[in-house]
Amino acid sequence: MKHILIAGASGMVGGELLALALADTHITGITSLVRRPSGQAHAKLTEVVVADFSDYTAHSEVFQNIDAAFFCIGAYTGQLPDAQFKALTVDYAVAFGKQLQMGSPQARLCLLSGAGADRSKKSRTAFARYKGMAENQLSALDLEFYSFRPGYIYPVRPRNEPNLMYKISRGLYPLIKMFGIKYSIPSTHLAQAMLTVGLNGHGQEILENIDIADLTGG
Length: 218
Prior knowledge:
This protein is of the alpha/beta class and 218 residues long. The chain has one domain: NAD(P)-binding Rossmann-like Domain (Rossmann fold). 38% of the residues lie in helices and 20% in strands. α1 (12-23) crosses α6 and α2 packs parallel to α3. The protein starts with a strand and ends with a helix. Residues 8-155 form the NAD(P)-binding domain. This is NAD(P)-binding domain-containing protein.
């Protein structure tokens, strides 16, 4: 039986992952790191309010006896000033990984990254550069690490789109989908792939959109 840890369960993908984990009979415990209580109640779920996601030392005990951990915290490009975007994308993720390594070195760590993540750190795009930096630092830890690089994530559940680009992308999703499984993935499929790999492992560290789709039948 498994105990998992999630950071970012209030987001689109993290929320889908949490829902799947709650329904999974192989998972007996779920710890969710949150900024504020969600109000969700379930026998398997424990929420831990974290004031500073760049330093988890005050909550070191919740990183113990974890089988799989999922870092799903993220922000949309242009949503935050560059310094904040880098802190959220790189510093929060790396601090999460380091604390997990100390508390549960046997755990699998799954990162919600993104298509185009650049480990060379040469990209002119902040998103690609910072995701690559996070991947590099997490890969260097003594953990079984997996990075998920989805393309456009289609939100299965209704939501208020964060900006005009996402409104347009949602409307064009049937067309985007026609280009094949390299470019887009439904949020539920991405969450299922992350949970599957977190519980069972995988043969490669980086999973591009096509690899994610293959895990869930497209």
